[in-house]
Amino acid sequence: MADASQAVRLQLVITGRVQGVGFRYAVLDEARRLQVAGWVRNRRDGSVEVIAEGSRGRLEQLAVWCHDGPRGALVSHVETNWGEASGEFHEFSIRH
């Protein structure tokens, strides 16, 4: 993870055919590959939410990846919100 003074927070809400296609597990793999911390979860409305912290460059890569997602996904929209990192995360995980 990036130095806390350089870290930022990214919230993504991904809509489309994103549940039941392994989206969360693919995000988990991609976030760990990019060495960012946070979590991913399915939301009741059928979307997937990601909260991630790390360097802006790595988070931008994660956001670009989420526009396509894994095979089987059909992403229609990605809402992107940037903020200050809290430093509360030490790894990336799936929330249920």
Report what the structure shows.
This protein has 96 residues and is of the alpha+beta class. The protein contains 2 helices and 5 strands, in the order E-H-E-E-H-E-E. The protein has helices at residues 23-34, 56-66, and strands spanning 8-17, 37-42, 48-54, 74-84, 92-94. Strands 4-1-3-2-5 form a 5-stranded mixed β-sheet, with helices on one face. A hairpin with a 5-residue loop joins strand 2 and strand 3. Helix 1 packs antiparallel against helix 2 (56-66). The longest helix is centred in the N-terminal third of the chain and has 12 residues, at 23-34.
Describe what is shown at a glance.
The protein is α+β, with helices and mostly antiparallel strands.
Strand order of the largest sheet: 4-1-3-2-5
Number of helices: 2
Helix content: 10-25%
- Taking all Cα atoms into account, the compactness measure Rg is 12 Å
Mass-distribution shape: globular
Low-confidence stretches: none
Mean pLDDT: 95
| Portion in beta strands | 35-45%
Number of strands: 5
Topology order in helix (H) and strand (E) letters:
EHEEHEE
Distance between the termini: 23 Å
Derived from helix and strand composition plus strand pairing, the structural class reads alpha+beta
For the sheet with most strands, the description reads: 5 strands, mixed
